[in-house]
Every structure is written in C-alpha cells, then in structure tokens.
Amino acid sequence: MDEGIFQAYEKEIQALEEEIRLLTEQYEDMRQESTFFSDEEILKAMKSLQGETEGETKEHESLSDLKAQLESLERDLSFLMEFTGIHFTSHSKKTVEKTPNKTVRKHKLAGRCHSLPFQLEFQLLEMQKDEKVSAVVSDLSIKMDSREDSNVSKFVSRTEECGDLITFFRSLSTYAEWHEHRRHTFLHFK
C-alpha cells in the first residue's frame, strides 16, 4: 500500500477517535445531568405531562395566554436591552452538583454593551432553606478588551474578587455609554 494513503487513513482514524472521545464526554455530561433528578421528580414530571395531554381544551386557552405572556416578556427584554445597552449573544450553563438543598451551576455569558464586547464565566451556588432561595457567585472571570484604559482592568480585577455582578453590569453600562460618546467625539475631530 502507498505510504501517502496509509498516512491519510491514519489521520482519518485519529480524527474519528477524537470525535468518539468528544461524543463520549458529551454523553457522560448528559447522563450526569439526568442522574440529578430523583425518581419522585421524574414521576411528578410524567404525571404533569399526562395531565397536559388529557386537557386538550384547556391547552388552546392557555396557549394563547402563553403567547401573550411571551410577547410581553419579549417587549420587556427589548426595552431593557435598549435602556442598558447590554445585549447578550450567548449563554450556556452546566450543572456541576445538585443535592436536595444545594445546586452548583457553571455559567458562561458573552455579549456587548454598546460597542464593548465582554465574556463572563462564573459558578452560581443556589441554596434552598425552607421556602427561601439564596444565590452566591463564585469563581468569577471577566474578559474585556481593556487596552485603552487601565482603570477598566483595575475595575474588572476588583469585580472578580468580590463577585458582584449587579455592580459590574451597572458600571459597564455607564462606562460603555460614555465610551461611545468619547469615541464619537474623537472621530468628529479627526
């Protein structure tokens, strides 16, 4: 057999082995997600699905209510994005740990605030005690292009240390708005 063909087959085999490895990891992640639900939760979900199929007439009424509610939520989201200038382009979450009283999820967010792109990664620990749910942000990592202003990199470092997402988004919105004004002003004088 020709050596070139043999190498091409070897490369194809390696690519297939890599694809198998990635698919196996995805399968394990999905299987791990599904094991977080107890038998009781699965039965409850099945019963609710059975109840939905039996109530076909109610479904049509609730479907129009759901559409109206969805349209209202979309209008609210559009208003908030316009008001704050923050537009999320992607979001993913992965459950790391789940117990009856505690859930740990890893979130990844990406977006733009006016013209400034940002990426966030953090873990959210949700603890439930009685009827109350509390959430704590940890392992916050923020990626922004802060070459223009050293104060931005200092602000990002402080925010990562304290894990305060609300302050981050408020400050980012204000900074990005004024950054846009400065950019337009400097373009005017060029």
TrEMBL record:
Keywords, in A-Z order: Coiled coil
Pfam families attached to this UniProt entry: CENP-P
Any one GO biological process: CENP-A containing chromatin assembly
Cellular component, GO annotation: chromosome, centromeric region; nucleus
Recorded coiled-coil stretches: 6-83
Protein name as catalogued: CENPP protein
